[in-house]
Write a structure and sequence with these properties.
Elements (H helix, E strand, L loop, with lengths): L3 E4 L2 E3 L2 E3 L4 E2 L2 E2 L4 E3 L2 E3 L4 E4 L7 H9 L7 E5 L5 H4 L2 H8 L4 E5 H11 L4 E5 L4 E3 L4 E6 L9 E5 L4 E3 L15 H4 L4 H12 L3 H14 L5 E3 L10 H13 L3 E8 L5 H15 L3 E6 L5 H8 L2 E7 L2 E2 L2 E2 L1 H13 L5 E8 L5 H11 L3 E2 L4 E4 L4 H17 L4
Parallel strand pairs: 8-9, 9-10, 10-11, 15-16, 17-18, 17-19, 19-22, 22-23, 22-24
Antiparallel strand pairs: 1-2, 2-7, 3-6, 4-5, 7-8, 12-13, 13-14, 14-15, 20-21
The structure holds MU-OXO-diiron.
Length: 395
C-alpha cells in the first residue's frame, strides 16, 4: 500500500500483513499492520519501523516521499520486533551514526536485541526534541506494555504516536477510523483484552496524567491497525471503560472434554444459568481460540472452568488456557470448577487452585463426576449453575 498523508507533511509509511494468523499465540484472523510514520520537517523523522521481513516495503514507501538517506533520526517508541525488526536495515541505509531517540529502557532493550553500538539518545519523560517547525514531546509509558514503551506527541499537529496502545490487529484497505466506523471496535477490544488488560491500573493513571497535562489531541496514530482521527476520544473512553473491568451478569463456561462427559456437565450448568436469567455461554477450548475467549472474559462476572482428568492432571487445552488467563490478570470474577474423571480426578482441584491464585472468588469446592454423568449428577450440575447465578453481583 502506498504512503498515506495523515496530516500535512506527516505520512503513514507502514505495511499491511494480510496473511498473519497467529501473532505469538493471539489469533489474528484478519491479519494486522505494522505502522511506521515519517515526519517531513527540517530534520526528517522516522517513527518506528516494521517487522524485519517487511523492511523492503518500508524502504519502498519512504522512497516515494524522500531519499531515505535524508532521514535525520529515528524515534523508537518500542523495542518489540514488530516495530524495530527493520531497524538494522534502516540504519544501514540512512547512516549508522544517525541518532535513535528512545527511552532509557529502550536503549537497553535495543542493545540486547541488535548487539549494535548505535547512536542512542535516551530521552526523559516529558523531554522535547525540536525538529524544525515542530517539537516532539516524549511520554514514558512504562509497562504499556513493555518497560521501554513510550509515546511521542507532536504539539503543532496535535498528533499522538501511541506505540501499541490504542492499536488493533486488523488488516484492511482502510487507514482511518472514519473509513471503517464501529466495525473496528471489536478488534480494538480484543487487542486490549489480550495485550493491555494486565496493565489496566497503569492505563487509568496514564489517562489521568494526560488529561492533567491538557494535551490537545486531534489524531492518535497507533502502531497497529487504523488511525483515530475522527474521534480519538472514542478509543480513550473505551480504554477507560475496559480498564475498570466492570462485569456484566454474564457467565462463561469454559471447558474441554474427552468423551463428552465434561461437556454434558458444561451444558447442564449453562442451562441452569439461563433458567436463572443469566447470560451464559459454553466455550469449548478446541472450538474457540484462547484469545477470543479472553475477549469475552473482559466483561463476564463468572468464569466457570471444566476439565476431564487426564494422566492425573488437567486436559492440555485447559492448562494452556489457565496459564494464558492468569498472565492477563482479569479482575472482579467469581469462579468454579467442574469435570468428569475415571479413577483419580485431580483436575477439578487443580483448576480451583489456579482460579484462587488469580484472585477469583471461588464459590464452590468444585463438582466432580465419575465417568458419565447420570440424572442425579446432572441435577448436581443444575444446582451448581443456580448457586453461581445467586453469587453473581447484581449488575
Ligand atoms: Fe506491536 Fe509490543 O509490539
Amino acid at each position: 500500500m502506498k504512503p498515506i498523508e495523515v496530516a500535512q507533511g506527516i505520512y503513514w509509511v507502514g505495511v499491511i500483513d494480510w496473511n498473519i494468523r497467529d501473532f505469538h499465540g493471539y489469533s489474528t484472523k484478519q491479519g494486522t499492520t505494522y505502522n511506521a510514520y515519517l515526519i517531513m520537517d527540517e530534520k526528517i523523522t522516522l517513527i518506528d519501523t516494521v517487522k524485519r521481513e517487511f523492511a523492503d516495503e518500508l524502504i519502498h514507501n519512504i522512497i516515494q516521499i524522500v531519499d531515505p538517506k535524508r532521514i535525520a533520526h529515528v524515534i523508537s517508541n518500542h523495542t518489540e520486533m514488530d516495530h524495530s525488526g527493520s531497524l538494522a536495515r534502516v540504519m544501514h541505509i540512512i547512516g549508522e551514526d544517525k541518532p535513535i531517540y528512545c527511552s532509557k529502557m529502550g536503549r537497553k532493550n535495543l542493545s540486547r536485541h541488535f548487539r549494535q553500538i548505535w547512536n542512542y539518545k535516551p530521552v526523559q519523560d516529558g523531554g522535547e526534541l525540536r525538529i524544525g517547525k515542530r517539537t516532539l514531546t516524549f511520554l514514558e509509558t512504562r509497562m504499556l506494555h513493555w518497560p521501554d514503551s513510550m509515546f511521542t506527541y507532536v504539539e503543532e499537529d496535535k498528533i499522538l504516536f501511541s506505540s501499541d496502545a490504542f492499536g488493533q490487529h486488523y488488516a484492511g484497505v482502510e487507514r482511518f477510523d472514519d473509513q471503517i466506523g464501529d466495525e473496528i471496535m471489536p478488534h480494538a477490544r480484543k487487542y486490549f483484552s489480550n495485550i493491555l488488560l494486565p496493565y489496566s491500573p497503569l492505563i487509568l493513571k496514564l489517562v489521568e496524567k494526560v488529561n492533567g497535562m491538557g494535551l490537545a489531541l486531534d489524531v492518535i496514530c497507533p502502531d497497529h491497525g487504523i488511525i483515530w482521527r475522527q474521534d480519538p476520544s472514542k478509543i480513550i473512553n473505551a480504554y477507560v471503560e475496559w480498564s475498570h473491568q466492570k462485569s456484566k451478569r454474564r457467565v462463561l463456561v469454559i471447558y474441554d472434554t474427552m468423551w463428552h462427559s465434561t461437556e454434558m456437565m458444561a451444558n447442564a450448568i449453562v442451562d441452569a444459568l439461563a433458567q436463572e436469567g443469566v447470560e451464559a455461554k459454553p466455550m469449548h477450548l478446541r472450538s474457540w481460540h484462547r484469545s477470543d475467549i479472553i475477549t469475552e472474559v473482559l466483561d463476564a462476572s463468572g468464569i466457570i472452568v471444566g476439565s476431564p482428568t487426564m494422566n492425573n492432571g488437567l486436559f492440555p487445552t485447559v492448562g494452556d488456557f489457565l496459564t494464558y488467563m492468569k498472565g492477563l490478570r482479569p479482575r472482579n470474577k467469581i469462579g468454579a470448577a467442574f469435570g468428569s474423571y475415571g479413577w483419580s480426578g485431580e483436575a477439578v482441584k487443580l483448576i480451583s487452585r489456579e482460579l484462587e491464585e488469580m484472585k477469583f472468588d471461588v464459590i464452590d469446592p468444585g463438582l466432580r463426576v465419575q465417568y458419565v454423568p447420570d440424572e442425579k449428577d446432572l441435577e448436581r450440575c443444575y444446582r451448581l449453575g443456580k448457586k453461581i447465578a445467586q453469587a453473581l453481583p447484581g449488575v
